[in-house]
Specification:
Layout: H1 3-8, E1 34-41, E2 46-48, H2 56-67, E3 77-83, E4 86-93, H3 103-122, E5 128-132, H4 137-147, E6 165-169, H5 173-198, H6 206-217, E7 223-228, H7 230-235, H8 239-245, E8 253-260, E9 269-273, E10 275-279, H9 299-313, E11 319-329, E12 340-343, E13 349-352, H10 359-373, E14 378-383, H11 387-393, E15 398-402, H12 405-418, E16 422-425, H13 429-433, E17 443-444, H14 453-462, E18 480-485, E19 491-492, E20 502-503, H15 508-522
Parallel strand pairs: 1-4, 1-5, 5-6, 9-11, 9-14, 10-11, 13-17, 14-18, 15-16
Antiparallel strand pairs: 1-2, 3-4, 7-8, 8-11, 12-13, 15-18, 19-20
The structure holds ligand BES, manganese (II) ion and zinc ion (ZN).
Length: 523
């Protein structure tokens, strides 16, 4: 309620409550120096979304200005100055009214609008921004948090972005509070994964990664982080993992994280994340162009860590166990050589034909350890595993290889809601065949050339999921396992709304949403 307006009326004429149509301002205008608000743009008519919180007089002023500036397409942004008691108002088009009906569409339109608005205001000295939550408070908060991501701690102070405070702009802020907070957590979790992935390899070694994650999760309830060292991995006979770590002077680490949000009798859901903090290719050295991108080869590890942060912040009623093998893949006189044979923790021998196919080697032991030790209800591994995945799907969908229709549909639903989507890829014994054609060992770590490289890598991994027998042709749906190849979605080429150029931190939000889906189904 606007006190300024009351002050201007003489006491005699002051009504008991002021009808909405008489208010001339944005609700609580004095709280903000800037606002982000959504507007629908139908053929000739523009209308605001948060009508409840904006006086009709102010709406009129805003709409007149928009009409004068060819404001039409979804995503169009116009910044207006000094209207309705607020210095800067970024208005973002939500597209046509009535077109965004489904839950996923509503979330995405709020997410995008909020991100585009924040980005428009960001460089204009704003400090306190209110964001329209009338479409979706969760989505608006996600967009606001994701749009503000910056990795500038290594730059000089002048070129660092100023922090801005973002709060929900709404008449009924209380109602949307929980929704807003969950959106902030989703966004912050993905930003955490982005930060881990963007960090240069020399500042995010296996040791530093595990310290950082232990620090980030410290103090959150029901979380236990165990950092295992190289000797522990040796005792576990994780020779496949250690074969990759061997070439580097940086010591490997093996993270084991437990989140206990449900009762003890409920089987945990497993997450496994590839944590190659730098992938040079090893002796099978990669070409130098774009090699720097391989600091992000711990994207699986980062998204698992980010998701666990979100899941425990939200205290979701589910049990999770995560394993994250961390190492560098480097060439040296101590490095594994093409043709070397190693015996993985599950006893299978692997001929290392290409030291650059290292992700599957470290995942082999992490998958087996998790699946044999914790009898998980489901197992999901995430890895920036193959260039072939990028060739197949680019950076729109992450590819999911799974033996379980149920697990696929839960992941698919989650990915649709977060707009961080999945596409189902094939698991087939035909792809496994080529991985078994070693002359000297049970398995070979290299498929036949480049053809179907993402699918043969997935088939290789299936050999290390305890309880799953690929010989049966993946028809048996237990244990439910999904391998998500995130090589294609590892980074984003440009900035648009909440997508930011650089390491993406995807699909962290989908993993959290998936965990939330499990909990709602169990109850
Ligand atoms: N980390 C790479 C895959 C990758 C490539 C991720 C591009 C993100 C962007 C992985 O370890 C790798 O080198 N894979 C090889 C496998 C091949 C040798 C069978 C590849 O895809 O070329
Ligand atoms: Mn590699
Ligand atoms: Zn790799």
């Amino acid at each position: 309620m606007s006190r300024i307006l009351l002050g201007r009326l003489s006491a005699a004429r002051r009504p008991a409550t002021i009808p909405t149509f008489q208010r001339r301002f944005f609700h609580n205008a004095e709280k903000y120096d800037a606002l982000v608000i959504g507007a629908y743009t139908n053929a000739e008519e523009i209308s605001l979304s948060a009508t409840q919180s904006i006086s009709s007089g102010t709406q009129k002023v805003v709409l007149e200005q928009l009409a004068a500036s060819a404001f039409k397409k979804q995503g169009d942004v116009r910044t207006l100055y000094n209207v309705g008691g607020v210095k800067q108002v970024a208005v973002v088009s939500l597209g046509k009214k009535g077109e965004t009906t489904g839950e996923a569409e509503r979330l995405e339109s709020a997410r995008m609008a909020s991100a585009l608005g924040i980005q428009a205001l960001r460089k204009q000295g704003v400090k306190n921004v209110g964001v329209d939550v009338s479409v979706s408070a969760h989505g608006a908060a996600e967009g606001a948090v994701l749009a503000q991501f910056a990795f500038d701690k290594l730059k000089n102070e002048k070129s660092r972005a100023d922090a801005i405070q973002v709060t929900p702009f709404s008449e009924s802020a209380e109602e949307s509070k929980l929704d807003w907070e969950s959106g902030q957590i989703y966004g912050a979790s993905q930003n955490l994964a982005r930060m881990l992935m963007t960090s240069p390899g020399n500042l995010m070694t296996p040791k530093l990664f595990s310290e950082e994650v232990a620090y980030l999760l410290a103090g959150l309830e029901n979380v236990e982080v165990i950092v295992h060292d190289e000797e522990w991995a040796q005792r576990q006979k994780m020779n496949s993992f250690l074969a990759v770590a061997k070439g580097s002077d940086e010591a490997p680490r093996f993270l084991e994280i437990h989140y206990r949000g449900a009762t003890e009798d409920q089987a945990p859901h497993g997450f496994v994340g590839k944590g190659v903090t730098f992938d040079s290719g090893g002796i099978s050295l990669k070409p130098s162009n774009n090699m720097a991108l391989m600091k992000g080869d711990m994207g699986g590890a980062a998204t698992v860590a980010g998701a666990l942060y979100g899941i425990s912040k939200l205290q979701l009623p589910v049990n999770i166990v995560a394993t994250i093998p961390l190492c560098e893949n480097m060439p040296s006189s101590k490095a594994t050589k093409p043709g070397d044979v190693v015996r993985a923790m599950n006893g299978k021998s692997i001929e290392v034909m290409d030291t650059d196919a290292e992700g599957r080697l470290i995942l082999a032991d992490a998958l087996y350890y998790l699946s044999s030790k914790f009898s998980p209800e489901s197992i999901i591994d995430l890895a920036t595993l193959t260039g072939a995945m990028d060739v197949a799907l680019g950076n729109v969908y992450a590819g999911v290889f799974t033996n379980s229709d149920g697990l696929w549909s839960r992941l698919n639903e989650a990915g649709i809601l977060t707009s961080d989507p999945f596409w189902r890829m094939p698991l087939h014994e035909g792809y496994l065949k080529e991985m078994k054609e070693s002359d000297v060992a049970d398995l070979n770590n290299l498929g036949k050339g480049r053809s179907g490289g993402a699918a043969s890598a997935a088939a290789f991994l299936s050999e290390f999921v305890a309880g799953l027998d690929p010989e049966e042709g993946y028809k048996v749906q237990h244990p439910a396992w999904a391998h998500i190849d995130i090589a294609g979605v590892m980074d984003s080429a440009s900035t648009h709304g909440y997508h930011i150029k650089g390491m993406s931190g995807r699909p962290t939000r989908s993993l959290i949403e998936y965990a939330r889906g499990i909990t709602t189904k169990q109850q």
